Every structure is written in C-alpha cells, then in structure tokens.
Amino acid sequence: MGQGLSCTSDREYQLFVPIRSGDTAAVWSLLESDGDAGLLRCTSGYDRQSALHIAAVNGWIEILCMLLDRSMNPDVLNRHKQTPLMLAAIHGKIACVQKLLQAGANVLMFDSINGRTCLHYAAYHGHSDCLQAIISVSRSSPIAASWGFARFVNVRDSKGATPLHLASCQRRPIAVQILLDNCALVCASTGRYGFPGSTPLHLAARAGSLDCIRKLLAWGADRVQRDSSGRIPYVVALKHRHPMCAALLNPAAAEPLVWPAPLKFISELNQDTKNLLERALMDANREREKNILKGTTHTSSSPSQFDVELDDNSSEISENELCCICFDQVCTIEVQDCGHQMCAQCTLALCCHNKPNPTTMCPVAPVCPFCRSIIAHLAVAQIKTYSNEEPEFILDASPSSKFSRLRKSLNFSEGSSSFKGLSAFGIMGGGRGSGRIAAEFDDKP
C-alpha cells in the first residue's frame, strides 16, 4: 500500500502539476514518453481526480483533446462519482463541455453527492451555453431514444429537484427560459429539496427573483399551487420579505398572459417568429406588472427592462401602417396561408384565449379574424420600408421597425379594411385581454 501511495504522489507531481498550470508542451512530452499509458490511469490523492477531471476544471481544451485522443475514458469517475463533463458544466467551461460531448460522454450519469447529472449542475450554476449544449446533444443521443428527451430534461436528483427547480432557486432566468423552451415541467413539485412540495415558482419566490417569476408565470405556473405545508408562492414571498414578488404572485391580482404551448403550430414556429411572440408576451405582462406594482414602495430590481424609449419619428407612422385590431402596433406576424397580417401582441392574444374542447380536451385552433380560416402556421411578416431617396423591399421585423415609415402589403389592407370598425374586445371573445386591450376593459363594470 505504501508503495502505491508513493507512486501516486510521484505520478501526480509528474503529470498533474503541468496540467493544472496549463503547460501543454510539458504534458505532451510526458504523454509521449509514457509507453504503457500508466499516467492516464493515475489519480490524485483524496479526491481521486484523473488528468481529464483536472483539465476539464481548468478549461485546458488542448490538454483535454490530448487525453481524449489517447482513448482516455470520457466518463472516468472521481471519488464523488463525478465525471469530467459534470465538472466542466459546474465551472462553465463550454469548450471542454462540447469536446466531451463529441467524445461520447454520457449525460445521464449521477454523482454520489446529490444524485445530480451534468444538466443539474449547468442549470444550478447558470451556465446557459453549457446547458444548451447538453440539451442539444440529448435530443439526438441514445438517451432520447431510450429514456425520452422530456424525461431527461425533468430528471430529478436525490432530493427530488429537477434542473428547473435548481435554476429557479439560484435566480438563473436565462437557464429557466432554456429549460421551459425544452419541455421542463413548470409545476413539478420537489421531494426534500428546499421546502418539501415546492414548485419552481415557490423557489423563485423564496429567492426573490422577479425575472424567474415572470418567465414561470408566462409559461403557466400555478399561483395557487400549494407546497407540503399548504403555502402558496405568494405566502412564501411575503415570508421572505420580497414585496415586489408577492405583488405579482397575489392570486387577487390580474392573471398573466400565458404562452399557448399546447397549440401544435406554436411548437413548430421558426425561431424569428417565436422570438417576436415571446417578446410580445413579456411586453404585455410587463404592462400588467406596472399596474400591479403601482402600490408597492420598492422599485424593480431591473427597471431597465421595463423602460421603453420611444423614437422621435414614431409620430410619422400613419394609421394605415398599424395593426387593424389594436391600432397601436406595427404588423410583424403573417398568417399562412391566407396572408393576413397582425401585430405580435394581437396574434398572441388570439392564440392565448382559446379554451380546450370540453369533449376532447384538446385546444381549439384559433382562426384568422379577417377571413375566419384556421391558423395553421405563422411567419414573420415581410414589411416594405421606404426611404426618402429609393424605395426598397426590406425584411424588418425588429422592434425598432415600429418607428420606421412602414407600409403593409396590399392583400392585408384590402382584406381587412372592413375590420377597422369592429370592437377588438369582441374579436377576443370576451376572454382575458393582453396589452392595451386588457387595460381598456378591465375597469369597466
């Protein structure tokens, strides 16, 4: 035994010291002179870290590649059964994460500390690039075929916490958004993690994260779901002295607009269209938040996200250039195949206010308000932008295009001219409105 310890200490001095310092030349020389690959099997003292673990922790991608090129096992375990992929995810070393994934590292391995995977650690520490890389690989890996992609995204640690629970508790809004975009269960309850029976919304309320609360509510988190002691998130926020969070979570406050995830065509949107609708969703909910938070004495932790500076040229927008439902926003979304155009907020309102069929419990497909055809697909509208010198066709669906001189396509202006005199509230079917529409009718008896 003493001889083994001595050998381990000597090996650590020879190989691990240059790896920790990132001395690529020294590591290369040692590996070339190691005829029986004994150095690759060597581990450090108490933690039993391999050379691959140390390279991953420090982010030395060249050394990591050297070790993997010599057929070193990418899933080698340390004392706590952690893989190099887990340590790279913990420290946010995205290049090492990507290389280990390319080398076939198993994303579904659990450590012995908390029973967590690399996905748990990427979410906990908020390394969104590592989180996205792991999720992308898991979609096409054998894990998705055998275990199931949605099951992997909602995998639980030894205390019953999913990656979404960890991201919410640690105030990681970007990680929360990535997980919600990839089938994370927004209302899942924990086991022993945090307070038993907590949902991601309970944990975000406990941490006082307004950004996480906004995203969870926009994806359908239940404000009245109770933990094991019967507390709703509103009570948790009050107990931990987060009045802004409590105001948003108050069941008596207006309900937020929720992303219409069950609708099939929503899941098939291209990224540009989805970004427009998600931005409209958050903007509509921010308008709701402003009304709710008027009575609070504290200011928002991120006021810059609520402030929208209007361009001086906004007065140049003519009535014909605006959405014919709300008369407020520029048309950025086109309904296919009829070609009618609306602003993102009105499009989202149409999709959010459809209730499931009581017999089939399937969501009712929304219809175009101009021609009454079923909305089967949405795309970014092609908008004409005119300069003072030469007219050009420019595809511009960014928010700044609202303050440019825009003109809608001919088929929209002709097909919707008779729609201008109708009540926007009537179109929405009397349901909860969004943005300006909601503000106009909430105060009426």
TrEMBL record:
SMART domains xrefs: ANK (SM00248)
Residue ranges of every copy of the RING-type domain listed in the record: 323-372
Entry keyword annotation includes Iron: no
Pathway where it operates: Protein modification; protein ubiquitination
InterPro entries: Ankyrin_rpt (IPR002110), Ankyrin_rpt-contain_sf (IPR036770), RING_XB3-like (IPR056760), Znf_RING (IPR001841), Znf_RING/FYVE/PHD (IPR013083)
Enzyme class: transferase
Protein name: RING-type E3 ubiquitin transferase
Protein species of origin: Kalanchoe fedtschenkoi
Lineage: Eukaryota, Viridiplantae, Streptophyta, Embryophyta, Tracheophyta
